[in-house]
Write a structure and sequence with these properties.
Two copies of one chain form a homodimer. Chain A is built from seven helices and two strands, in the order H-H-H-E-E-H-H-H-H. Chain A is mainly alpha-helical. Chain A has a two-stranded antiparallel sheet with strand order 1-2. Bound molecules: FE2/S2 (inorganic) cluster (2 copies). Chain A binds a DNA duplex (30 and 30 nucleotides) through helix 3.
DNA sequence: GGTTTAAAAGACAATTTGGTCCTTATTAAA
DNA sequence: TTTAATAAGGACCAAATTGTCTTTTAAACC
């Protein structure tokens, strides 16, 4: 469904969202808590920083923090930054363009599922996910 | 969402389902109509044949035909044969096992979308897709 | 039986994705 | 001002996916 980079990116963002506002978290810690490969996660965080959902700081006391309140960042922004728009708008059978005026055989059934996914991603904020972690009802690892 | 192999496989199956019962279609024709790479499509059809949704015949008058009525084959069987079960049961954040008793942060939202996709795939038969093609309301290419 | 046709099988190549490592740039603190 | 810490960037490697090509196997037809 999502790329590995995207999975790592989402987990990292949720963990960062758990910190108190403005607090920075280092790459090493992020990779450890999310059980993600450190160097590869670094690349992904760079992408997220370039896309403006994350800010990064070098040097001692450096690290990463959210660019805005966790309630203002949703999963769709993260997925779009890392995996692109394909999953939001692409054809289920790989036609160059999903077009309701020249639909592929699965278009209507697929588009409705795909739009459901899109709605879910757009309507899920980092805040609620981090809150679940705080409450201990959900987990970042197994 | 689906692999290229799976996209080609689904398109091929729909086209085969369009033929009259028992009628065989050759690889070349399938690849042409679906605009898929011939040799790669061949591999995919082999997988589908091994998985029993397709039967193949060698020699002159050879080709492929469905192993049973097109109303008895659904998209889930095809996707499962080619891409495996990951998409039906896998965790949205890549945890080894999606487990409601130790859910990841996106579990409940993701699982509902994923189950919607699964339901769609299980409840969509090749027959209805081929019927759409026959009716000229949908298309295999752009 | 020999010839032709078409799928199966397997080797191989190209591309994309996933992942590591090393150097550089930047910043805080001693 | 030097040193240490940390992210950025780029080169590189590994694995999976996508794709091609050649040989083998099976079947029809003469
Ligand atoms: S055209 Fe294929 S999903 Fe819309
Ligand atoms: S545990 Fe992640 S989706 Fe179920």
């Amino acid at each position: 469904m999502f790329s590995k980079a995207c999975e790592y990116g989402i987990k990292a963002m949720i963990y960062i969202a758990q910190q108190e506002v403005g607090q920075r978290v280092g790459l090493k810690q992020i990779a450890q808590v999310t059980e993600s490969p450190e160097a590869f996660t670094a690349k992904t965080l760079q992408i997220l920083a370039r896309n403006g959902v994350l800010v990064s700081f070098k040097g001692p006391t450096g690290g990463f923090s959210l660019s805005k309140d966790s309630s203002k960042i949703n999963l769709a922004q993260i997925v779009k930054a890392i995996d692109g728009e394909e999953i939001f708008t692409g054809c289920g059978l790989g036609l160059e363009k999903c077009d309701a005026s020249r639909p592929c055989p699965v278009h209507f059934k697929f588009a409705s599922v795909r739009d459901g996914l899109s709605l879910m991603l757009h309507s899920t904020s980092l805040k609620e996910l981090a809150d679940g972690l705080d409450a201990g009802t959900v987990f970042l690892t197994q």
